[in-house]
């Protein structure tokens, strides 16, 4: 999926919410879109999901099926229980509704919620149901606006592991530097409607000046490695602990 000289202006708005955006999303890779509030993440994702039409420029979709989970999942719910909510997409695509629903309920550990009314769930549970109702339709491209918002570390990891495993083209926005570092293959940094930078998470998320300008927090583990002038960033906390031990910091 590619964007060419993409511009978008909301009705009655003075300035462009998306300006001169040229991106090439790699197939079967996970791309994280980052940037402070109002930088244009949601607008970009809505354009990619074909929820809104570009003011100028275009997006090349090919014939790919695109699934979208919005920033406010509860606004998208319309079924009487979680199971039918998740079953809607596969039914619509002529897939095996029962099989697909069961599969994603299990994948995301939410089978116990299947008879519940989507509106009464906690915001974290709604987040998972919203993701499930996209995965169940088995789209080629999965677009997720703040998929880990209102989730705890465990839910965040659950989602990250599922996304890694399904091997699809995935584009998500996030405020979580840790989530982006752990699960994105590529990062796009948005700033005032434009692409400020793109690259590998480990490169983008250690660039202090860039992060400051874009209003993004440096991941703890990178900050930790920088404080010790380490050449490489530890893979996880276990590796960081090992390094700390070798340096005699834990004696
Ligand atoms: N429905 C809307 N009408 C007018 N302006 C909007 C609307 N939604 C967002 N905007 C504006 O577009 C810009 C980008 O917003 P958004 O895409 O929501 O950013 P982000 O998701 O990064 O917080 C902001 O200046 C915001 O105020
Ligand atoms: Mg947003």
Question: How many domains is the backbone divided into?
Answer: 2
Give the full name of the CATH homologous superfamily of the largest domain. P-loop containing nucleotide triphosphate hydrolases
Class of secondary structure makeup: alpha/beta
Tally of DSSP β-strands: 9
pLDDT below 50 for ≥5 consecutive residues: which ranges?
none
Number of helices: 10
Strand-residue fraction? 15-25%
What's the overall average pLDDT, rounded? Answer: 95
- What integer value in Å does the Rg equal? 19 Å
CATH architect. name of the largest domain: 3-Layer(aba) Sandwich
CATH topology type of the largest domain: Rossmann fold
Bound molecules: adenosine-5'-diphosphate, magnesium ion
> Which strand order spans the largest sheet, edge to edge or round the barrel?
5-6-7-3-8-9
Q: What is the CATH top level name of the largest domain?
A: Alpha Beta
User: What is the terminal separation in angstroms?
Assistant: 52 Å
Percent helix, as a range, is 25-40%
């Amino acid at each position: 999926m590619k964007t060419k000289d993409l511009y978008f202006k909301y009705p009655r708005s003075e300035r462009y919410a998306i300006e001169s955006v040229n991106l090439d999303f790699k197939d079967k890779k996970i791309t994280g879109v980052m940037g402070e509030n109002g930088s244009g993440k949601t607008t970009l994702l809505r354009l990619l999901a074909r929820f809104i039409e570009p003011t100028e420029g275009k997006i090349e979709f090919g014939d790919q099926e695109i699934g979208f989970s919005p920033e406010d999942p509860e606004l998208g719910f319309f079924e009487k229980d979680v199971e039918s909510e998740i079953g809607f997409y596969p039914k619509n695509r002529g897939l095996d509704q029962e099989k697909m629903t069961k599969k994603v309920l299990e994948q995301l550990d939410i089978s116990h919620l299947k008879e519940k009314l989507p509106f009464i769930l906690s915001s974290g549970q709604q987040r998972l149901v919203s993701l499930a109702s996209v995965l169940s339709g088995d789209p080629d491209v999965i677009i997720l606006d703040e998929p880990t918002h209102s989730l705890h570390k465990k839910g965040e990891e659950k989602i990250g592991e599922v996304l890694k495993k399904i091997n699809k083209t995935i584009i998500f926005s996030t405020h979580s530097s840790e989530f982006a570092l752990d699960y994105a293959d590529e990062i796009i940094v948005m700033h005032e409607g434009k692409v400020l930078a793109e690259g590998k998470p480990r490169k983008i998320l250690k660039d202090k000046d860039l992060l400051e300008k874009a209003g993004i927090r440096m991941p703890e583990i990178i900050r930790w490695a920088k404080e010790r002038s380490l050449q490489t960033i530890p893979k996880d906390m276990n590796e960081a602990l090992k390094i700390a031990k070798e340096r005699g910091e834990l004696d």
